[in-house]
Write a structure and sequence with these properties.
The complex is a heterodimer of chains A (about 350) and B (about 210).
Chain A (H helix, E strand, L loop, with lengths): L8 E2 L11 E2 L18 E7 L31 E4 L20 E2 H4 L11 E2 L3 E3 L4 E4 L7 E2 L4 E5 L7 E5 L5 E9 L3 E5 L7 E9 L2 E10 L5 E2 L12 E6 L5 E4 L2 E2 L8 E2 L10 E9 L9 E4 L2 E3 L1 E6 L7 E5 L10 E9 L2 E2 L3 E5 L1
Parallel strand pairs in A: 3-6, 9-15
Antiparallel strand pairs in A: 1-2, 3-4, 4-5, 8-10, 10-13, 11-12, 11-14, 12-13, 14-15, 16-21, 17-18, 17-21, 19-20, 21-25, 22-23, 22-26, 24-25, 26-27, 26-28
Chain B lengths: L12 H5 L15 E4 L2 E5 L18 E5 L2 E4 L5 H13 L3 E4 L2 E4 L5 E4 L9 E3 L4 E3 L12 H14 L25 H9 L19
Antiparallel strand pairs in B: 1-4, 2-3, 5-6, 6-7, 8-9
Classes of the chains: A mainly beta (about 350), B alpha+beta (about 210).
């Protein structure tokens, strides 16, 4: 047997008995791309068959009856359930067996008994998809990521994995992997990813090892911090522009040998005629549809961008400034960048 | 989907074989998987059909939530099952008695070989299991025990924790490995995420669509 597609086949072609002339399973696959969910073979399910189970079934992941309701079966023996139905015992006049909701105790089709044929009972495998948490690689937080942005997926067994994104239209897209380790894989959300919920799957050797879902939005702003955790001092460049046009860069942070040891270096606003500009780096911002806004220490500041940085895939750059002189002496202040109404993760700079 | 079409239909086997660049569904070593998103649906019969053999077992229609799941895109095929049998035999996990395959020393039947049931497409020559006819990528016919044992083997092959105790046949849903889908998972998978309207069949309401 086997109907993997929608061509019409007659039973005579297989030498099968039966009254109906034809049986057809549309194009064979359903909306999720699964084949033979009706009309090929019966398929074993894990559950014992128990007629009244629907009245007591729990809401979340019903595990099936704990034991078979043997007393309800004609022969008083327990039976497992089967689904799907075979074309052998289904046709347009009696749609019972191939219906997607049809339940069948194996008593009727294939008792677990060597004297009774079960050659028309098959099965498909299943397992829970191991969870993957997907976030912006810049903010390490947020409920969404943007097409073309750098994302991080956290899970286990991810080293050397390949990343596939299935978007809300069902399109399956291969993502560029930037780096992977056992518990984290960084990748670029494909630019063609449609907005809406997407599934991200990590596979090794063609075998999916884990998967998770994430909401894709046109803009999902995230800013990189110096400690690469989405918090604290910004991974930024400061540029002091003097009235004669000469430029001097200033360090925004300094880091010790240990990971996560970066701290802010107080920025010098320079002479009264000097202007200090900040270049911040992030991701998920290039798709903006209205001008971005920003505040430093609660004071509005000019914004240029964000735009694609150009040198690194997925990286966006935004320039802020001039830094208001009213912030002089404030010490560590927060930068809040808002893109298309969504605030990026706040990062900081220190101003002397 | 041309490469996937009709691969199991005897009359066009030769024509499909010419499409060598396309992997024949079900011919891979391990079952191909499809990732299902988590979600909820109304489980049960939405069309008031009553099966006279077992009436009222698809009601009440009730809301069920299903966790994200990896499920076989196709049924497990004869060639895939034969690989399991050969691997399990070499590990001393199964034995053949009178043409019937059992767990080693056990009495739970996994399947019939072709030698005792000519509907079976898997033969046994005393040392090796092999597909005996053109049905290499057709779904395999096995007992529930044979199906569950395969899922444990597949978990072992892929470094996952097996879900079944092969003596008591209890399932442990907390393990990372493969198992048979629950009845709720099966119907969730079968409906393919289409709830407006709910369909009679996995693809729609008609058997004979054109």
């Amino acid at each position: 047997m086997g109907f993997y597609n929608g061509q019409l086949h007659t039973k005579a072609a297989f030498g099968w008995p039966g009254s109906q002339a034809t049986y057809q399973t549309s194009d064979g696959s359903n909306a999720w791309g699964l084949y033979d969910m009706s009309g090929n073979n019966w398929q074993w399910v894990n559950d014992w068959y128990e007629n009244p189970y629907y009245s007591v079934s729990p809401y979340q992941d019903p595990p099936g009856p704990t034991e078979a309701a043997a007393s309800l079966m004609p022969d008083g023996l327990p039976y497992r359930g089967m689904r799907g139905g075979t074309w052998y015992n289904s046709d347009a006049g009696d749609p019972g067996h191939g219906r997607v909701s049809n339940r069948d105790p194996s008593y009727y089709r294939a008792p677990d008994n060597p004297d009774t044929p079960y050659y028309h009972v098959s099965f498909r495998v299943a397992r829970y998809a191991p969870a993957l948490t997907i976030v912006s690689a810049a903010s390490y937080s947020g409920a969404s990521v943007a097409p073309g942005s750098i994302a991080s997926a956290f899970g286990s067994g991810l080293a050397g994995g390949a990343v596939t994104v299935t978007d809300s239209t069902g399109a399956e897209l291969t993502a560029q992997v930037l780096a992977s380790a056992s518990t984290q894989i960084n990748f670029v959300m494909p630019s063609a990813t449609a907005v809406g919920p997407a599934t991200v799957a990590v596979s090794n050797g063609g075998i999916i090892s884990s998967a998770g879902t994430v909401l894709v939005q046109t803009v999902a702003p995230g800013l990189f911090s110096a400690n690469a955790n989405g918090k604290g001092v910004a991974a930024a460049i400061a540029l002091l522009v003097k009235s004669d046009g000469s430029q001097t860069s200033e360090p925004v942070f300094e880091c010790g040998a240990a990971a996560g040891s970066c701290v802010a270096v107080p920025l010098d606003l320079g002479a009264a005629s000097d202007q200090l500009f900040l270049s911040l780096f992030g991701t998920g911002m290039r798709g903006l549809t209205q001008p971005a806004t920003a505040t430093i220490g609660g004071t509005s500041v000019g914004v240029a961008g964000p735009v694609a940085q150009g040198q690194y895939v997925g990286l966006d750059q935004v320039n802020l400034g001039p830094v208001p002189r009213s912030l002089a002496g404030r010490g560590e202040v927060s930068i809040v960048l808002t893109v298309d109404g969504t605030a990026a993760n706040p990062v900081t700079v220190s101003i002397q | 989907m041309i490469g996937r079409s009709s691969t199991l239909i005897f009359a066009v086997v030769a024509a499909v074989a010419a499409q060598a660049q396309s992997t024949q569904p079900g011919s891979t070593t391990y079952p191909e998987l499809t990732l299902l998103p988590a979600g909820q649906f109304q489980m049960g019969d939405h069309y008031g059909f009553v099966d006279p053999e077992h009436p009222s077992d698809e009601v009440p229609v009730h809301t069920v939530a299903i966790s994200s799941l990896l499920i076989g895109t196709y049924d497990v095929t004869n060639i895939q099952y034969a690989q399991f049998l050969n691997s399990a035999y070499s590990q001393g996990l199964i034995e053949v008695r009178n043409g019937l395959v059992y767990a080693k020393g056990g009495n739970d039947l996994y399947m019939d070989t072709y030698q005792v049931l000519n509907y079976s497409s898997i033969g046994w020559n005393g040392s090796t299991f092999a597909v005996v006819d053109f049905r290499a990528t057709h779904p395999v016919g096995v007992t529930w025990f044979g199906a569950a044992a395969y899922t444990n083997w597949l978990s072992q092959q892929q470094g996952l924790q097996p879900c079944y105790d092969l003596t008591t046949w209890q399932v442990d849903f907390t393990k990372s490995g493969y198992r048979l889908p629950t009845e709720a998972e099966w119907e969730y998978a079968g409906r393919g995420g289409e709830y407006n309207p709910y369909y009679i069949y996995p693809w729609g309401n008609d058997v004979d669509t054109t």
